[in-house]
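hey so u asked for the seq, here:
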Amino acid sequence: MRFGITFDYLCPFARNANEAVLNGLSSGRDWDVEFVPFSLSQTATEEGSPDVFADTDISGIRALHWGIAARDTDPEHFPEVHRAIFSLRHDEGRDIGDEDLLRKAVSGAGADPDQLAEEVASGRPAETLARQHTEAVERWAVFGVPTFIHGEIATFVRLMSRGVVEDVDRVLSMLEWTDLNEFKRTRIPR
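ran it, structure tokens below
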């Protein structure tokens, strides 16, 4: 199955779903996945304000640039880089805007931090973020992360458990069921 999944390292639900997709891929699921960067900070800007896609002082933007750089220039290491940046934010509670911490996380994931820093400095990841975020909004009306995209159908979900492949299987099995528009629990029994 071919699908996309949006991500922003700021969101714990994006982490849950993206890790589940990564786990599915590493366990042999026959998925063709596009990881689509999406900036929650951009969605929070007031109308008429400048876009945030290149502003690394804005929350989450620098980390998105590093993730995009890994995805686009070092796909072999992208899965572990992707996990490491989410972990930096959600396990360690660290500042994902700190380049030194990103370098350490990327290095620990097996990627070359100098190579990724060079790619980030080129400006291409910022341009990619702007293009892919804007396409997600304009083409599929994406408003948050994680959103699963299959063909012309986009579905925002919040998976409560971290990294569970079977949860993604359930989501994927429902993507083409367009008679269900919204399914939202009023309370989560936990």
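The chain has a mean pLDDT of 96. The helical segments are 12-26, 40-43, 61-73, 78-90, 99-108, 113-121, 124-140, 165-174.
lmk if thats what u needed
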